[in-house]
TrEMBL record:
Keyword Kinase: yes
Enzyme class: transferase
Source organism of this protein record: Belnapia mucosa
Family: In the N-terminal section; belongs to the phytochrome family.
Designated name of the protein: histidine kinase
Phytochrome chromophore attachment site domain location: 165-321
Alphabetized UniProt keyword annotations: Chromophore, Kinase, Photoreceptor protein, Receptor, Sensory transduction, Transferase
Domain Histidine kinase: 543-757
């Protein structure tokens, strides 16, 4: 919309700093109706369709064509002389109830020029704000037009587009805002879930102390102040020592609502906070997430009073919006990637639940999948049939106590906390393994839950001053006075559950309640289609790997013939080339053989028989004698119960596990390899343990993937398909396999086979 005659394009409201007071009194202070404004401008408010003057700041008489007392109740055309009547009324009737609009330059009768904005207040008044125009020659860095500021904004846009992380985005935004405004220090302040704030980026000239990395309590910015930051994204406090200018009213009544006003006066306690901080001037720009929720603030401070032009404040607001868009896009992409990674786990869990008779059997058939779904270290599945645990969990009696506590909470289908002891004090006894809890209720009829646990992570938080409430005199409120770094050790808290993990748990609950338990026939039909596709993929894999064997053998054969018959004619380099061809072809051949073997695992029918596995283990040891030559190896072969399985396939399981144990104990003196087994009512459990290099449990989920390796190929040979074969064989028998280890502390592989006959002898 073009500016009115007598008015020219201007910018939105002002800013403040991320601070308020740690007292309950400040939480209830009505800061949106202070009854006064800051003295670096004037305010007029007009009521009704007639736009008659209802409120004016003391001193606003210099804007009017008559004295304030005489102007009250008069229409705007008579109050502001020289303004075009119809155009002015049209613009004021169109004022937004959510954001100030630019109305341009206004020249008062005395000749002074003001920058002017207008907005519709929540109580229905048309509010005009006037600030004296800043002269760039008086302050060179205070550009007065957006055109002059455009290069800086454009540079910020380019640099934000190149930033590769949220940290770089924040530091770029801070530097850009300081360049535009000339403030001594600019912070990017991010709110945590509990509204504590952390300074994640800072740009300064050294005149003020650094706050980078410091944390500030939620009470520093009370709830009503945060709400104002969401609806009024800019605030300027030009001088913390100002004397408030009262707002006069035509007649008694409630104070004028200044929610959207840039000149709004601030709490005296907040001004004291600024003085304690040593920052006479401050400006802040809100950073809003895609949902309109307050993400953080760009907070500017100066060591002396300072005004900032409308144009500069608008430019800073634009930088904040660009930053917010970039951050939201980055966070959304991270969330999408995390959900995509977890979808595969969800699919496997659903497939197992569909074919299982009991919920816990399907969920815990492969415990690592259920743990990895939420990046937990322990999980419990409670149903009316019992309690099944996996990983590191509290004792069963404590797990049942947690479930009973959850059952008493109404409506908590999904519950999460990273500090269980803070809501359930008795949980402090096992905070080392269960400080974090993510739980889903999977039945409305019985107290059935899936509970994930995370351990305590002890960390040190550095606060910007002691966050505890000070001792206050009874007569008035005071903010804290010290901002010196204050360290606190935080215990009984785990890492937070991410939005993707919580969503994955919620989706799993939906699947259990809404799909698996209510639509078993549909899931069975889908499983059948997936099995057909898997069989087709297995057939394709078999065909391709089978057909590739002959070409690689030909390459090796002809290369050997070339070396044998023409070797004397080849140079040393040519001979090296031939050797490289042979080695590469042999490696590729071994890889193809492994793939063929892997595909055959899904095509070969099971022929289970009852037999003693001890002779089979002894036979595998004999085949590995060449790998043992000259090495000190201590074999500890324990008793193993009779089992029902396919002997040829079980031989491959032990062949892979024992070969790996020999490989990864290389260099141990002596190497210790322990093989044992025991029977339960339903399963036979086998164990293969060693004292080798081990592995990090954080990567345990990769062990059984095709071509997954946890060690460099230069250190330990192999193609990375052996454990995938082992898992496929064990699962085809109806069992499960898992591993435990620690770097330098050895590894242990455990697998089960059911005592009854294998569930199916069909290829899968």
């Amino acid at each position: 919309m073009p500016p009115l005659p007598g008015f020219a394009a201007v910018t939105p409201p002002d800013d403040a700093l991320p601070a308020s007071v740690p007292t309950e009194g400040c939480e209830s202070e009505p800061i949106h109706i202070p009854g006064s404004i800051q003295p670096h401008g004037h305010l007029l408010a007009f009521a009704g369709d007639g736009l008659t003057l209802s409120h004016a700041s003391a001193g606003a008489g210099r804007l009017l064509s008559t004295a304030i007392e005489a102007a009250f109740g008069q229409p705007i055309e008579q109050v502001l002389a020289g303004t075009p009547k119809e155009a002015l009324r049209t613009r004021l009737h169109q004022l937004s109830a959510t954001a100030p609009q630019q109305l341009g330059r206004f020249r008062a009768a005395a000749g002074a020029v003001f920058q002017t904005t207008g907005h519709r207040s929540p109580d229905g008044h048309a509010v005009l704000e006037f600030e004296p125009e800043m002269e760039s020659e008086d302050r060179p860095e205070a550009d007065v037009t957006l055109e002059a500021l455009y290069p800086g904004v454009r540079d910020a846009f380019t640099r934000l587009g190149r930033a590769a992380s949220t940290e770089l985005l924040a530091s770029t935004a801070a530097a850009s805002v300081r360049h535009i405004t000339g403030f001594d220090r600019v912070l990017v302040y991010r709110f945590e879930e509990n509204w504590d704030g952390t300074v994640v980026a800072e740009d300064g000239n050294g005149r003020l102390p650094t706050y980078l990395g410091l944390r500030f309590p939620a009470s520093d910015i009370p709830a009503q102040a945060r709400r104002l930051y969401e609806v009024n994204p800019q605030r300027l406090i030009a001088d913390a020592d100002y004397t408030p200018v009262p707002i006069l009213a035509a007649q008694p009544g409630p104070p004028l609502d200044l929610t959207h006003a840039g000149l709004r006066s601030v709490s005296p306690v907040h001004l004291e906070y600024m003085r304690n901080m040593g920052t006479p001037a401050s400006m802040s720009v809100s950073i809003l997430g895609g949902d309109g929720r307050l993400w953080g603030l760009i907070s500017c401070h100066h060591a002396e009073p300072r005004r900032v032009s409308f144009a500069a404040r608008n430019a800073c607001d634009l930088v904040a919006q660009m930053f917010a868009v970039r951050v939201a896009a980055r966070e959304e992409m991270a969330h999408i990637e995390a959900r995509a990674q977890l979808k595969g786990l969800e699919g496997r869990l659903l497939a197992r639940m569909t074919g299982a008779d009991r919920l816990e059997d399907g969920l815990l058939a492969v415990p690592t999948d259920l743990l990895e779904l939420t990046r937990a270290t322990g999980v419990a599945v409670l149903t009316d049939g019992g309690c099944a645990l996996a990983g590191y969990t509290p004792p069963e009696v404590e797990v049942r106590r947690i479930a009973a506590w959850l059952a008493q909470r109404s409506g908590d289908e999904v519950f999460e906390t990273n500090s269980l002891a803070s809501v359930m004090p008795e949980a402090a006894a096992y905070a080392d393994i269960a400080s974090g809890l993510l739980a889903i209720s999977v039945s409305k009829l019985h107290p059935s839950f899936v509970l994930w646990f995370r351990p305590e992570v002890i960390r040190t938080v550095t606060w910007g001053g002691d966050p505890r409430k000070p001792e206050l005199p009874p007569d008035r409120l005071h903010p804290r006075r010290s901002f010196a770094a204050w360290a606190e050790t935080v215990r009984q808290r785990s890492t937070r559950w991410s939005a993707a993990e919580i969503e994955a748990a919620r989706d799993l609950r939906t699947a259990i309640v809404g799909i698996v338990l209510r639509a078993a026939e549909e899931r069975a039909e889908l499983t059948g289609r997936l099995e057909r596709v898997n069989r087709e993929l297995a057939a394709f894999s078999y065909s391709v790997s089978h057909d590739l064997r002959a070409p690689f053998r030909h390459i090796v054969g002809f290369a050997e013939l070339l070396r044998e018959r023409e070797g004397e004619k080849l140079s040393a380099r040519g001979q090296r080339y031939v050797s490289t061809i042979v080695e590469a072809a042999e490696t590729a051949g071994r890889l193809v053989d492994a793939l063929l073997n892997f595909s055959q695992m899904g095509r070969t029918a099971l022929v289970p028989v009852q037999f003693d596995p001890a002779p089979l283990v002894a036979e595998v040891r004999r085949t590995l004698e060449l790998e043992q030559a000259g090495r000190p190896i201590e074999w500890r072969i324990g008793p193993m119960p009779s089992t029902r399985a396919d002997p040829a396939m079980l031989r491959q399981v032990f062949q892979n596990l024992l070969s790996n144990a020999l490989k990864y104990t290389r260099g141990r003196d002596p190497a210790i390899i322990d093989v044992s087994g025991e029977a339960s009512d339903t399963d036979v459990v086998f164990h293969v343990r060693d004292n080798g290099v081990g592995f990090d449990m954080a990567y345990a989920h990769k062990l059984f993937g095709v071509f997954q390796r946890l060690h460099r190929a230069e250190e330990f040979e192999g193609i990375g398909i052996g454990l995938a074969n082992v898992q496929r064989i064990v699962e085809r028998h109806g069992g499960r396999i898992w591993a435990e280890g620690r770097p330098g502390g050895g590894a242990a592989f455990h697998f089960t086979l059911p005592r009854q006959a294998a569930p199916s002898d069909e290829a899968t």
